Amino acid sequence: MERIYKGKTKDVYQIDEYHVLLQFKDDVTGSDGVFDPGANTVGLKIDGVGQAGLKMSTYFFNLFNSKGIRTHFVSSEIEKSSMKVRAAIMFGQGLEVIVRYRAVGSFYRRYQPYIKEEGLELNNLVEITVKDDERGDPLINRDALIQLGILSEDEYNYLVNSAIEICGLIKEELSNKGMELYDIKLEFGRDKESDEIMLIDEVSAGNMRVYKDGNSVKPLELTQLLLA
């Protein structure tokens, strides 16, 4: 298969016109050797995290599909750390939809003067960023997305409402295991064959901040706790 994209945590290979293969790596985002799901650089390598991410993604994609939520997931081969998915067309050069339940990370750093204390509870707060490593994945608001032709108003509303629904399911699953979801980033795209909007990329520990008993849950531990 031809590699068509080399990513920070996954490589993408072409299978056929409407399907690609995601090959998961053991790299995670962060800086100075510290894991940070909001970072846009590789910060460290954790042995086994690629396969763990695939297990978690498979678990959640099967859950979403059972709820009638459109995703790009087709199948996975855990032992090969690979996932077959439907090919997607990006919105612009790619968007990330972030749902926040607690004021931490970059959100806390940006708005600290208005936040009484780190970890302040938030109510389904949604942010959208443009995928652009060179410019640090800048935030973009609704009006800019629409006026720049990246999203229509209906597409914007669909992305926000879908992200809230999807993250609500994730939050509930983690809560059932005694964990709390602080924030998470999702990606959406258009199905290359049907043109329908669908959830893409992965849904794993590398894309979210999760706490248990007041302590941050590390990526490998998160997968183990969820799937126990």
Keywords:
single chain; 228 residues; alpha+beta; Phosphorylase Kinase, domain 1; 2 domains; seven-stranded antiparallel β-sheet; five-stranded antiparallel β-sheet; 5 helices; 28% helix
Outline of the structure:
The chain has 228 residues and is of the alpha+beta class.
Secondary-structure map:
Layout: E1 2-6, E2 10-16, E3 19-24, E4 27-31, E5 34-35, E6 42-45, H1 49-66, E7 73-77, E8 82-86, E9 88-89, E10 95-102, H2 105-111, E11 121-130, H3 142-147, H4 153-175, E12 180-191, E13 197-200, E14 208-212, E15 215-216, H5 219-227
Antiparallel strand pairs: 1-2, 2-3, 3-8, 4-5, 4-6, 7-8, 9-12, 10-11, 10-12, 12-13, 12-14, 14-15
Helix pairs in contact: 1-5
Task: Explain the overall architecture.
The protein is an alpha+beta fold. It folds into 2 domains: 2-88, Phosphorylase Kinase, domain 1 (2-Layer Sandwich), CATH 3.30.200; 91-219, D-amino Acid Aminotransferase, Chain A, domain 1 (2-Layer Sandwich), CATH 3.30.470.20. 28% of the residues lie in helices and 36% in strands. It is built from 5 helices and 15 strands. Strands 9, 10, 11, 12, 13, 14 and 15 form a 7-stranded antiparallel β-sheet that branches. A 5-stranded antiparallel β-sheet has the order 1-2-3-8-7, with helices on one face. The chain has a 3-stranded antiparallel β-sheet with strand order 5-4-6, with no helix packed on it. The mean pLDDT is 95.
